[in-house]
Amino acid sequence: MFTERRSGLRPHKQTPAQGWPDIVGPLLLALCGGFGLEAFTPHSVNNLALAYLTHAWYLAIVGFWVWILGRRFPLGRLSRQGLSGWFRPWILVGTLYLVLVLLSPGPPAHHAIVSLLIFQGVVVGPTEELLFRGLIQTAMNHSIMASPVWGSLRLGTIGTALVFGLAHVGNLWYQPLSLTIGQASFAFVIGLILGHYYDRTQNLWGAAILHNLIDLLSVAVPLIIGH
Questions:
Q1: CB contact at 8 A, 141 and 211
Q2: N or C end of the chain: smaller count of CB under 10 Å?
């Protein structure tokens, strides 16, 4: 899609996402847009609807950078061969997170369960991975030309994971500080895993699927246990 001619969606002139404007611009727009939606959306709009709006905004940012500015980043193929590098983290991380959720399932999901499951299992992964791993991480690793910090983990990947964790601080708008700190810390760790395997595989589909799996388990498991 973003690096292949087959989709027919490529702009006439493309350059890799590689400069600081490709990092700071999308990040500031994402944060300002997210906080703006939270601050100015009427109170009659519930948190789930607000989350849908926020992720639509993320997708709009990526669309502008790709189709208007002509930036590109590895997307990979949605095929068994293309996703083979993700099989191990899917199983390991998915199993570990399932155990964690089973040990602390939390409160039952609220009444808008279908919309919530769609959001967590379909929407969150692709929109956040396109923005953070695809656009921002690609640009950051091109901008910070440094040797891997630990193993094959790159400095730009760590920076993107940190930014990804901090982006969850916006949840303070509707939940306690302690819970928000926990979510931001968890997002940082997951961001490291997603970013590391994205660097290795150059396949964003795998990252989006793992992201969806984690978020879906956090909703579906408590719902099943509660019933």
A1: no
A2: C
**Amino acid identity of 182?**
G
pLDDT tens-digit profile of 56-98? 999 999 999 999 999 999 999 999 999 999 999 999 999 998 8
Q: Does residue 8 sit within a domain?
A: no
DSSP per-residue codes, 134-195:
IIIIHHHHHHS----SBTTB-HHHHHHHHHHHHHGGGGGGTS-HHHHHHHHHHHHHHHHHHH
User: Is residue 21 a part of any domain in this protein?
Assistant: yes
Name the token pair of 129. Answer: 């991975």
Give the domain range for residue 105: 15-226
Residue 190 lies inside a defined structural domain of this protein: yes
Number of structural domains found in the chain = 1
Residue-wise DSSP of 27-53:
HHHHHHHHHHHHHHS-TTS-HHHHHHH
Query: d(Cα 48, Cα 32) in Å, to the nearest integer?
Result: 19
Q: Could you tell me if 223 and 133 are in contact, meaning their C-beta atoms sit under 8 angstroms apart?
A: no
Q: How far apart are CA 207 and CA 139, in angstroms?
A: 17
Residue 194 belongs to some domain of the structure: yes
CB-based contacts of 33: which residues, under 8 Å, 6+ apart? 54, 57, 61
* Residue whose C-alpha is closest to residue 138's, from 13, 5, 17, 9: 17
